Amino acid sequence: MIEKSIETLKGIGEKNLKLFQHLGISTIGDMLKFYPRFYSDRTVKPIKDINGGQIGCIRITALAPIKTMRTKSRLTVHKLYATDGNDTITITWFNQDWLAQNFDYNSWYNAYGDVSVSLYGKEMALRVLERSDKATTTDANVPVYSLTKNLSHNMVVKTIKQCIPYVSEIPENLPPEIREKYGLCGIGYAITNIHFPKNAQSAFFARNRLAFDELFYLQLGLRLLNKAKNKLKGTAFINGTEIASEFIKTLPYKLTNAQFNTVTDIINDTKSGKLMNRLVQGDVGCGKTVVAAIALLIAAKNGGQGAMMAPTEILAKQHYTYLKDVLTPFDVNVVLLTGSLKSKEKREALESIKDGGYNVIVGTHALIQKDVEFNNLSLVVTDEQHRFGVEQRSALAGKGGTPHTLVMTATPIPRTLALVLYGDLDVSVINEMPPGRKEVKTYSVDENMRQRINNFMIKNINEGRQVYIVCPMVNENETTELKAVTEFAKTLQNTVFSDYKVDIIHGKLKAAEKDEIMSRFVSGETNVLVSTTVVEVGVNVPNASVMVIENAERFGLSQLHQLRGRVGRGEWQSYCIMFCDGGEVAQNRMKVMTDTNDGFVIAEQDLKLRGPGEFFGTSQHGLPPLNIANLYEDLDLVKIAGDAVTDILNADSNLSKPENKIIRQDVIKMYKGNLTL
Ligand code: ADP
Ligand code: MG
User: Fold this and answer.
1) Percent helix, strand, coil in the chain (nearest 5)?
2) What is the dotted CATH code of the domain comprising 43-139?
3) Ligand 1 — pocket residues by CB below 6 A?
4) pTM (2 decimals)?
């Protein structure tokens, strides 16, 4: 009865059902798989016993009225100066105004959160605040779930408790030999104890087993995908070397060795008749586009069609302009296909793509729509792969025959992770920058520097340069936030930059509007471009030399690095200035940015500081999500799970034996039809 709706449980009315569904939970089985994010130790401790960097629970009362402030970034910050009777601490939380409004100054509270130490003493970033006499728990292993608004923690715990009796219905998926060999507890024990661990050890075993399962299925699926792909044949391209050298002669610069080696990899892959499946990794600005151009030219000269897919319209257009420019002299017809084409233009383009009138087709997601029919698609280049998933990739690859694929990304992925995530790809790394690039000078500043930075921007504009100002948007759809960014741009136009032209660009604009704003910036008509993160990926405006990032603490390191990569693309000395008003943790992250320009180092740090879930959401790739496993912290488990996959496939290469029946069902379900077994 594990498939039964949670509606049948006590306490689940229409309202709560909706809230649970919002979290992707409809059945009892789903509920059991809703794992806690971590356990909190809610036993109350004295302030002096919790050190900076630790999470803990204290019992406090207020020493002064709560101070409430609004930050530049439109957040409300509340600060409560409190004592446990012996020591003092400042407790901080964002938004949740009701906590401050209903605060009772005559009561004691249990405050649970992250403690840090600064010049001003101990601080706590609050997670939970409860009146001590009404505290829900003071236990040592309290599961903490990721909640949605209005769904209380107690509600989740109560509901999961009711589901526990159904655990016995969950069949064991792993054969006993595997469990024994790798020291894994049973699935039933794991699920019960992940929610309500008897002690720290049982929580460890439970987590280990469930994380193992996730990493096992991830790698099993990739291995099976890979196997299927290795059997596929692609069009054999001839004369790759000759075609490439003719093209290289026309370039105004010499290819770097790394670019040259990547081109050689591509030529070797595609001449064999085997199907190419290659990832090109290279930091922003290393020159991946020209490599793509060469690959597309080779495909076209071999009588096939090459498609290049970009994540945004702006980027697709930029690639189109570039490719048209460099490929037309070689009698290659290039076309742009995006969602914003007028219907007549689109019809004509589609006709001509179908007839083979165009050899190179550049576009966005529009390329994978049903109405696009290719004549002879032999190569697909995907730029900035981290925005595309396995499903999209295979949708495009499914369009007529089996095209070679070339995937380009500037998000440097540490080798170990690349192997797991891209187990199905070969990798070329462009680890060298074109000569003569000046390093982008990077500074982390606070509000005191505002005036000086404004003057600095104006100085650069007067020298003929252009400026980006990027504002974070927590949620690209949030209208109030968008309004604030728009207001900010208006204010800048009317004050600091009253003699110059300011434009604003954000994700909510129509594609045509974005294009227009972008072309005004590219042409130099606009001096300052205020933007949300839409400039992050790929755009190339060599004349822009200053990148100012507001509330830099709210971006991930890799994202900051991508943003910084928008400047320093021309001959000018360029600057990246990050306004940061965060505490110690944020300052440390800024230091990583000011210390190095190496994207790989930054990616490693980002993984350490944030974990790969956020860094690199696996679900975006059409891979099964990792709810509990962590690709960075669980490297040992990654390896063990990989060994188990080898054991199982060695004995039963297509999972047809009865003992692997459940594994087979699971993996097919997780890879949503991308697998054929
Ligand atoms: P990315 O790898 O970030 O996509 P681009 O392909 O946009 O980088 O290249 C960035 C800039 O570097 C472009 O202006 C391009 O013309 C230039 N470029 C690429 N390769 C070389 C090279 N070997 N020597 C000099 N400049 C180059
Ligand atoms: Mg690029």
Assistant:
1) 45, 20, 35
2) 2.40.50.140
3) 253, 255-256, 259, 282, 284-290, 410, 434, 540, 569
4) 0.64
